[in-house]
Design brief:
The chain has 58 residues and is of the alpha+beta class. The protein is built from one helix and three strands; from the N terminus they run E-E-E-H.
C-alpha cells in the first residue's frame, strides 16, 4: 500500500512521514470517503463553517 501524503500544521510542509523535522506530528490530507448515508457530515460542515467564520472568510 503506498504512503499517503501528510501535512505539518506547524511549518506548513507536505511529507510522507508521521513526524516532521520540526518535531510536530503530521496529519493526513486526504478527504474522507464519500457516502450518501454519512451521519457525521452535518457536524463536519458546522465545524468547517465555524473555522471559516473565525478566519473572516464567511
Amino acid at each position: 500500500m503506498p504512503d499517503k501524503i501528510r501535512y505539518c500544521t506547524s511549518c506548513s510542509k507536505y511529507m510522507l512521514k508521521e513526524k516532521c523535522a520540526c518535531g510536530a506530528h503530521t496529519e493526513s490530507r486526504s478527504p474522507p470517503k464519500y457516502s450518501p448515508e454519512d451521519r457525521l457530515a452535518k457536524y463536519r460542515r458546522q465545524e468547517k463553517r465555524k473555522i471559516l467564520q473565525e478566519k473572516g472568510l464567511l
